[in-house]
Amino acid sequence: MKSAVILLRRLLDIREHEIGRLVLMSSYLLLVIASYTTSKAVRDSLFVTKIGPAQLPYMYLLIAAVMGAVSYVYSRTVNRIGLYRLIRLTSLISISNLIIFWWMFREESAVWFYVLYVWVSIFGAITASQVWLLATHVFDAREARRVFAWIGVGGILGGILGGALTNVVALWFGTEALLLVCAGLMGITLVLLERGAHTARLRNPQPEPHSGDGQAESAQTTAKLLRQVRESRHLAMLVLLLSIAVVVEAFVDYEYKFIAKHSFGSRDQLTAFFGAITFYIGIISLMFQVVLTSRILKRFGVGSAILLLPAGLLIASLTLAAAPVLWAAALLQLIDGSFSYSIHRSGMELLYLPVPPETRNRVKGFIDMFVDRFGRAVGGGLLVLFTIAIPLSMRSISLIVAALTAAWISAAIVTKREYLHSFRLALQKKTIQPEVLQAELLDNGTVETLRRALASADEREVLYALDLLSNTHPDRWRRDIQTLIHHPSSRVRARTIAVLAEWNDASLGQDEFIRHPDYATARIAAASALSLQWTGSARACKCLDQLLRDPVPEVRQQAIRTAGQVRYEEALPLLVETLADKRLRRVAREALISYGVNIIPELVRRLNDERESHAVRMRIPKVLARMNTPQAAAALQQQLQRHPEMLAYRVLKALNRIHTTAPEITFSRELIITAISTERTEFDRLQAVARCLESSRISDVDHGRRRASAIYALLIRAVRERVNHRLERILRLLALLYPPGDIYSAYLRCISNASVRATAIEFLDNLLDSECKELVIPAIEEALEPERAAGVEHLKFISRESALQTLREGSDYWLQTIADSLVSALHAEGETFDDDYRLSRINANR
Amino acid sequence: MMTTDSAVLTPIDKVLSLQSVDVFRHATTEMLAYIGSIATELRMKREEVVFLKDQLADAMYVVVRGRVRLEKEGKEVLVVGAGQSFGTWALFDDQPRLMTAVLLENTHLLKIKKDDFYDLLADHDEITPVIFKALVERVKSLIPD
Q1: Cα A46–chain centre separation
Q2: Strand, helix or coil for residue B111
Q3: How far, CA to CA in Å, does A713 sit from each of A344, A486, A783?
Q4: Which of A234, A338, A828, B27 has its Cβ near the most Cβ atoms within 10 Å?
């Protein structure tokens, strides 16, 4: 199940922490669009049945005029009350209006149908744009690039849902009931808005800085934009293309509604029909968007993409001219609706590529603000002319639409030519940003233009073209790879290999690449680049996985750094294992620390897992220590008495490190006193063994005895080391309860200089509370000043055999090894311990 | 003829040989066992040369049994016996050998390669400070009062 989620996440190119917000915003858009499409079907059905389609041209004019006024008021309101309040207010007004409309339509007053017609247009435009505006606050710019396409899918699904609801509810409960359904859908959006605003932290109003002379500025900007459009042939063609499209849309809308009105006797059947067509438009749009758009763009290019809609409309218009019946009108509407919001929109977006980013945003705003409104007004005006002033038949109107679409096709052909020309110019001026070139949408013409730039003599131009191509699969520019990896410029060679590495391209496995002087450098660069442009996409994950297992340590090192920087969860097991690799352990440790406290449970699990490599377990405490957090300290404290000798020591050192660097972190006194007590018991045991061994001797009359004697001395030294080590551990534990500097200073004095030892012990005697004093001071005295040791009486005097037996059966592998060697040596040579000597030493000590 | 045989000395024997080496004098017995684990044994015949002056220095040696003469331009500088080491600086710098080492009798040596030594330090970082401590003491002893 988990792997399925990961696979889905990679396929959708989204990260785990984005899923919740994506679902939220997609659902929000789905509900808004469902509500809009439903209310639009109700509006159209009611208007054409109650008022009649002949009045539609006036409505187009009226909508254009009202939209202008509304957008002015709207922009001023958003500046005053902030986005969250505005959206909330809009939703509440929409819900109340929908209920009012439902109530008013009982009386069938004509004016309400006009009001509803205009209202739905404004409602659709405002609410949809509000969702997108909210989304820009919920997601940052990098996230937006990945997830907005999927939020858009929510919109398409909303269209499908709206169409289906309309189709069903209109027939069961009547057209007007759908208004209550819309109000209900908008009611749900209020809940989603709360969550969205909470995520985007929009609850407090954040009014935009208000300019006192906004209108004058706006007029200046508009004049400047008009000048820019006039000066750029490409922009002028874009505006022309969009203007024709809006005019044609008005005609298509009129024809469709006119014929539909005359094809159905019942209002509810008409509503259901509108719903059904909306439903199919959604299905076709979805199919195009998911399956066909990128394929068509790749195969046939942007020129074909923007021709598809006018060509389809031309054919449908001619069909309608030949047979002005319902199915032909439905076909016209289906083509218009489904192509407009899928392939045509993607193609039109591509046409903006050569436009510099700052100009692009302004031009888009200008088109939304003026071209769209102006086109609608022109469309409405022409319809008034051809349907009211000079009443033409539906066949004639269809022929006019056919003529307009023919003009549209001509404009599209010219625009395509202009686009390629502008693209070449933009390439030379380097005004295109690599991230705006989406791999799946890049058409062949654009790729060919970029490939031609790869052959340029100018290194910078080649590098720029490579950057632009970096989002495009190498299959589309494979013929150039050989030339590029043998390019005279090392930067071009390295960048080429880096791009191929990012794509995890199979060609990198060839000997020619592996032995290439720039190959390792390029992979290091690729690993580094991933951290700068991490998308979390399937491709990026695959590339990082491969780099993490690269045979070259330097590449692995950079990949590990990247994994830490982007907190790549799938790399966690590998990073923990890398702690055992002495060349990469430092960088692996830093990477693990970057993941933060969330990985502490996993690190603790590995620390306790006896099947885990010893080298890895030994390194985990330091990782936890370097995190320097209360959580890490708490986890380490729980490990204090769980592990064998060296690992336990590492845990303790890690705790000391935390206490030194973060003194504000406190430890459980109870746990530490228990640990000191355990250490003291072990200290006493070892001390007893040490005393016993020191009080015995082995005679070394011949060579064999000399060996046993040497091992015996070694054993005494090793046991003494262990005694001192226990003392160090006791003091380290103490340093978790008292100022570490004081304890360390006392420890250094104790072990270094006999003359200051007494002062150090005295200092500790004053510093420690009675409980600690009782546990620690006797141990120090016994270890360092046996002659003064007050606690010596409680030490058990054990026989040499018991001492050796204790060591051989103990858990200390090293002492065990020496004791075994000693016993072997003694057995080989015969027992010659001088017990009388030992007993005399014991008595002397007493 | 130089021969290697790692199965003859036990880990304890290696520790017994290493414990008197100056540079390891602050190492615990357990640390010596780790160092012993990377030491390889050499059994060499009398008059064999362990290394020549100006040769690349890549290892230090500890005498387990026998004697080694260190000479410079034909003149004896030092004779090293059991429990003593020579060529120690090879662990810490990349300079060529300053002297030639010739065996005065059949000798049993422990050889510690520089690369292995640094690998060991990476795996057992607790050894590094004790080596530093011995080196600092040696440097201090060279400074006149």
Answers
A1: 46
A2: strand
A3: 90, 68, 18
A4: A338
How many CB atoms within 10 Å of residue A662? 15
Among candidates B58, B10, B57, which has minimal Cα distance to B36? B10
Q: Which residues of B touch A721 (CB under 8 A)?
A: 28-30
φ/ψ of B80, rounded to 5, equals -110, 130
- Tell me the two tokens of residue A790: 């007050």
Of A804, A792, A791, A799, nearest to A839 (Cα)? A799
> Under a CB-based contact definition with an 8 Å cutoff, are residues B55 and B75 in contact?
no
**DSSP letter string, A215-244:** HHHHHHHHHHHHHHHHH-HHHHHHHHHHHH
Q: d(Cα A797, Cα B114) in Å, to the nearest integer?
A: 46
Residue A291: Cβ within 10 Å count: 10
Residues B12, A711: C-beta atoms closer than 8 Å: yes
Contact between residue B33 and residue B15 where contact means Cβ atoms under 8 Å apart: yes
Given the cut 0.95, state whether the ipTM is greater than it.
Answer: no
Asked if A814's CB is within 8 angstroms of B29's CB, the reply is yes
Tokens of A104: 């008013």
Residue A2 burial (CB < 10 Å; 0-12/13-18/19+)? exposed
Cβ contact B20:B35 at 8 Å: no
Alpha helix (H) residue ranges in A609-753: 614-627, 630-638, 645-661, 669-694, 703-734, 740-752
Query: Are the beta carbons of B12 and A582 separated by less than 8 Å?
Result: no
Chain B partners of A615 at a C-beta cutoff of 8 Å? 123
Predicted confidence (pLDDT) per residue in A546-565, tens digit: 888 888 888 888 899 989 98
pLDDT score, position A809: 84
Instruction: Indicate the residue of A582, A615, A817 with minimum beta-carbon distance to B12.
Output: A817
Q: What is the 3-state secondary structure (H, E, C) of B1-59?
A: CCEECCCCCCHHHHHHHHCCCHHHCCCCHHHHHHHHHCCEEEEECCCCEEECCCCCCCE
Q: Which residues contact B84 (CB under 8 A, 6 or more apart)?
A: B20, B21, B62, B63
pLDDT digits over A658-702, tens only? 998 888 888 888 889 999 998 888 888 888 888 888 877 665 544
Which pTM value belongs to this model?
Answer: 0.53
CA distance A607 to A590: 18
pLDDT of residue A845 exceeding 60: no
Instruction: Examine the pLDDT at A29 and tell me if it is beyond 80.
Output: yes
Contact criterion met (CB below 8 Å) for A508 and A501: yes
Residue that the structure tokens 């066949």 belong to = A395
3-state SS, residue A207: coil
Of A582, A615, A721, the CB nearest to B29: A721
Q: Are A275 and A45 in contact (CB under 8 A)?
A: no
Length of chain A: 846
Sheet-wide strand order for B40-44: B3-4, B40-44, B107-113, B59-65, B85-86
Q: Work out the angle between the directed axes of helices A2-12 and A538-548 (0-180°, nearest 10).
A: 110
In this complex, the residue of A582, A615, A821 whose CB is nearest that of residue B12 is A821
Contacts (Cβ under 8 Å, ≥6 apart) of A595: A564, A567, A572
